[in-house]
Amino acid sequence: MAPKLDDVAKLAQVSKTTVSRVLNKRGYLSQATIDKVYAAIKELDYHPNVVARQLYKNKTNLIGILLPTVANPFFGELTAALEMKLYQQGFKVLIGNSMNDPAKETAYLNELLTKQVDGLVVGTHNQGIKQYEHRDLPIVAIDRIMNQDIPIVESDNYRGGVVATTRLIDQGAQHIIHINGPRELATPARRRRDAYEAVMREHGLTPSTYEIDFNLPEGRKKQLFRQLLIDHPEIEGIFSSNDTDAALIMQLAHELGRKIPDELLLIGYDGTKTVRELLPSLTTIVQPIDDLATTAIQVLNDRMQGITTKKEYILPIKLWQGDTA
Amino acid sequence: MAPKLDDVAKLAQVSKTTVSRVLNKRGYLSQATIDKVYAAIKELDYHPNVVARQLYKNKTNLIGILLPTVANPFFGELTAALEMKLYQQGFKVLIGNSMNDPAKETAYLNELLTKQVDGLVVGTHNQGIKQYEHRDLPIVAIDRIMNQDIPIVESDNYRGGVVATTRLIDQGAQHIIHINGPRELATPARRRRDAYEAVMREHGLTPSTYEIDFNLPEGRKKQLFRQLLIDHPEIEGIFSSNDTDAALIMQLAHELGRKIPDELLLIGYDGTKTVRELLPSLTTIVQPIDDLATTAIQVLNDRMQGITTKKEYILPIKLWQGDTA
């Protein structure tokens, strides 16, 4: 039989109300009383019923993290960084991998509305979910454009596009293509494309962005990229908006006998620790995952306390100099 | 002002008790009553207070997942698979990345004892945490040996070791080393080593296991592996107990001019989707992540319902045939 609040009160020779006050740090209490109660809690190995205490305080100390999937190294590393930092602040983390399921994303948002979580970090790609229209929700978006009321934390996507494109041009490539998701996607990653196109034009070169649905099965993607390389032997440089696609292109170039970097220059994007360990030869733009997590939590804390935040936080990127460009 | 249970009762013209019964699916209720209550809920956009309902039912519908870190592709993909399947059963997932912090692992276990989660999936490496001694907790371990009362779900590590070692020998290697964690680690992965050593001896070859702390910083690991390759030019085959180390060896072999597979055969372990996409040329043993997740959830469901389970569930591995062996 698990010990109850009652047992703690009896052993400590105080009232149940006093035990409750000690647990919830409420009202005036002498140090002697606090010590007596904690001594009794320890002796009985008493575990307060957390759900009941949460109801009383109207706080769950849970933060929801809603991302496409932790199976992707970028989101896996981001979630790990968020979890570690939130844990240090006394929060536990509830995850939701929405993938492309707006119903699932909506279900998680309803959790927030029914007060199962105190705040939410969102980085999904689903569109038009009406729950986001509720004002003043403690939500922060990472690398996603939501609505005017939700602050966004992102890395400097435009600068990343400039650095990548400039490097390809400086190394002598003229026929450079960019691979990115569909333009209508509500993500700041589209700024990488804007930067690529601007830099190309500044150098008198013709930009050519190859749009690809990032949810295509890998086999289909491989077919498309293979055809692209076969049909366009004039391509000298590729700036890919993610490292997975860049890795696929490396593999295809090898199969087709196109030497990297001698005949084809290649730069990826994201630069996770996983990619840098598994494929250190890939030159890529590194997103500051740890700083994104730190900033998102600061912004969320402000929102939870009702403090007004900026609309947008842009963090610097870095270049990982591999051998492919 | 958010609508209350009271408002729903008034609009539906039923008692508060009836609304509560409908919400908790308790007692006899006519379909007409159920329909009236749900119509009122919808009209008022009423969100039941979930924390209060959980207290009533003494269930949280939360499952905790306690793993070293979702930043690692194996645990990231495993967590994604568990989350997806648990979501389909109406559970939400609370994650804890324990890393090497027994204090953090203990804190998560205390959550379970204080009923914040209904069950727990554990795959951490910390030792001697006394909370695991509580009998009959709804816990399942993945790829970790806990204690006699906690069922374990794992892939066929011994078979994986046999397949890898046999392949290296069949391709002509005789001086084959195995890289693994310290033997005292309580993980079934040590069976890969047992299998390697047995197969080597069966073929009249001398096994040589190189023990390495998997938490070493990457730079230090790289130094050690580089020295190993330089000091032992006789090595013809390496069976690495994880793909990250195998990727590091690929890179070092390239730097040192040791041609893979002509001069050095290499096989990794885990074979995550991430590794197969980023580094498809690496031959590796594939753990059945999706099946591990499905089985772990079945076992956990049994434990939560008080059904006796087996002590151990061993699932088949596969070989990914890359170009390195």
Automatic annotation (TrEMBL), chains A, B:
Q: Name one GO molecular function term.
A: DNA binding
**HTH lacI-type domain boundaries:** 3-57
UniProt entry keywords in alphabetical sequence: DNA-binding, Repressor, Transcription, Transcription regulation
**Do the record's keywords include DNA-binding?**
yes
Q: Which domain of life is it from?
A: Bacteria
Name the Gene3D superfamilies for this protein. 3.40.50.2300, lambda repressor-like DNA-binding domains
Task: Name a Pfam family for this protein.
Answer: LacI
Name it.
LacI family DNA-binding transcriptional regulator
